[in-house]
Specification:
This protein is of the alpha+beta class. It is built from 7 helices and 14 strands. Strands 4-9-10-11-14 form a 5-stranded mixed β-barrel. Helix 1 crosses helix 2. The longest helix has 18 residues. The radius of gyration is 23 Å and the shape is globular.
Length: 355
């Protein structure tokens, strides 16, 4: 209260308009408690770890198996007379292991995530994937600097889309801190790409009947046929821009990217020679200019096939150029996220390695 006496009045602050409040709260089927005790979770985690260590003699150690379960109650009320709440649950299991061969050590992991425990990936299958991914990394080497086509594996591709949504957030736009400022109603992606929000999907990982302002959430295409149709806004940022809230105070809700008709193997065949990135390291993204530079691990592709793992390289480019020259989206969708996409085939990036 003392601080408020010395601050300037902000006409953009305040409650959302009454007519934007959700009238009927849809049931998104989000609350599925998991009746597992800590003792049971520990026992199952130990079984998973034991299984992982038995699968391949190159698996030399484990970084652990994690079992997480939680429930949340989200409630909002304001002086417009609105009040509402909904319960949700989220459960996950992950496994991380270490492989060793000829003096080289590599680590990798896999996880499963769902609203309901029955929807989690089979635990043994998850462990097998963690072991397979880790052993594939053995024998990694460096390569010389080059410019090549790049494929972002599906579980990393969503990170690129999150950069795009950060750039079209109302906060970034009104601050002028976005490489997509002034791009509304302009093409920013190829015409075959649509980015759709569907906030009421049953058991959706980001389903929500209303946003953090109590505003009704709704289906929306933020990008359709490659054209930016809407910013991502809550009440405050919308008022700063002279627009209306999109019901996204608190973030994006269940985004889906248009999928192509090729799986990851087919994308690699189409690429011929290039780099398949499976891990990103560090932070090097300038949201004002779109300049992009991150450490990476992945696999060198020749004749459409994996030849060897690659480490100690940096991927560099510009996000606006990367998005506008996107060649294809795979159908190998990763469902473990609120932003679901297949692998992304990019035209060309700089792969900085040995000089």
């Amino acid at each position: 209260m003392t601080i408020a006496q010395h601050t300037q009045e902000d006409p953009s602050a305040g409650l959302a308009d009454p007519h934007q409040m959700v009238k009927i709260i849809p049931d998104c089927d989000l609350d599925h408690p998991w009746a597992i005790s800590p003792t049971q979770a520990i026992a199952k985690a130990i079984d998973c770890e034991t299984y992982a260590l038995s699968l391949d003699p190159r698996i030399s150690n484990s970084e652990g198996v994690s079992v997480d379960t939680g429930r949340r109650l989200s409630a909002y009320a304001n002086s417009h007379g609105f009040s509402g709440y909904y319960a949700s649950s989220l459960h996950s299991v992950s496994c991380s292991v270490v492989a060793k061969e000829q003096g080289q050590m590599q680590r990798d992991s896999h996880y499963t995530l769902a609203r309901a425990a029955d929807d989690l990936l089979d635990w043994n299958t998850m462990v097998e994937k963690a072991v397979q991914k880790t052993c594939m990394r053995l024998g990694a080497r460096k390569i010389k600097t080059c410019k090549v086509p790049v494929i972002y594996h599906a579980d990393l591709a969503r990170g690129l889309w999150r950069h795009l949504f950060s750039a079209i957030s109302g906060t970034a736009i009104y601050r002028g801190a976005s490489f997509l400022a002034d791009k509304l109603d302009q093409p920013i992606l190829p015409t075959f790409i649509t980015l759709s929000q569907r906030p009421h999907i049953p058991k959706g990982l980001a389903s929500a009947p209303f946003d953090d302002d109590g505003v009704a959430t709704q289906d929306r295409d933020f990008v359709s046929e490659g054209v930016l149709r809407s910013y991502l806004m809550g009440t405050y940022s919308a008022r700063k821009l002279g627009l209306k809230s999109t019901g996204n105070a608190g973030g994006l809700q269940n985004c889906f990217v248009t999928l192509g008709d090729q799986d990851l193997a087919a994308l690699c065949k189409a690429m011929g020679t290039g780099f398949l990135v499976t891990e990103l390291i560090g932070q090097g993204v300038n949201m004002v200019t779109g300049d992009y530079s991150r450490g990476a691990f992945g696999y060198w592709i020749e004749n459409g096939e994996i030849q060897f793992p690659v480490e100690g390289v940096t991927l560099a480019g510009n996000l606006l150029d990367m998005f506008s020259h996107l060649k294809a989206v795979g159908n190998d969708i990763d469902t473990r996220s609120s932003l679901q996409t297949g692998s992304l085939f990019l035209h060309e990036m700089t792969l900085a390695g040995d000089a």
